[in-house]
Amino acid sequence: MRMIDGNIFEEMRMTIPEHRKAMVRMNQAAKRMEKPQLAQDCLEEMSLTLAAAIQDCTVVTIKRYHALGSVEIELVPHKIDPYLRVLKGVTSTDESISIPLTEILDVQV
After folding, report:
1. Structural class in CATH, domain 40-108
2. Residue 48: its pLDDT value, please?
């Protein structure tokens, strides 16, 4: 509430730095996203899409899991390394990138 709303004591309250850091950590922990479990047919569809994109050298958009929210990356996939379980590709800025297969949430052409 704001002081205009009549809550004078809320505006006068002081927060020490240790408490402020703890409040920031609690807010970040609340925003964290749990990693979703993907269905088997969804995994198969993503696999087929990636295989076609590798064969045709087409650009795909990959939604990658991150604890604070998903990240979308556009790249041209080159190879799937089955031993390291990573997807290797090149972004539009000619940057080589490796994405762990366990972090891929969705693949769109």
Report:
1. mainly beta
2. 92
Read off φ and ψ for residue 71, nearest 5 degrees: -125, 135
Question: Nearest Cα to 53, choosing from 39, 74, 70?
Answer: 74
Dmax of the chain from CA atoms? 66
**Phi-psi category of 50—alpha, beta or left, where left has phi over 0 and alpha has psi -120 to 50?**
alpha
**CA angle, corner 68, sides to 66 and 71, nearest 5?**
45
Q: What secondary structure letter does DSSP report for 35?
A: P
Domain range annotation of the chain: 1-31, 40-108
* Per-residue pLDDT at 1: 47
- CA gap 64, 22 in Å, rounded: 28
| Mean pLDDT, residues 70-82 | 91
Q: What tokens does 63 get?
A: 């939604």
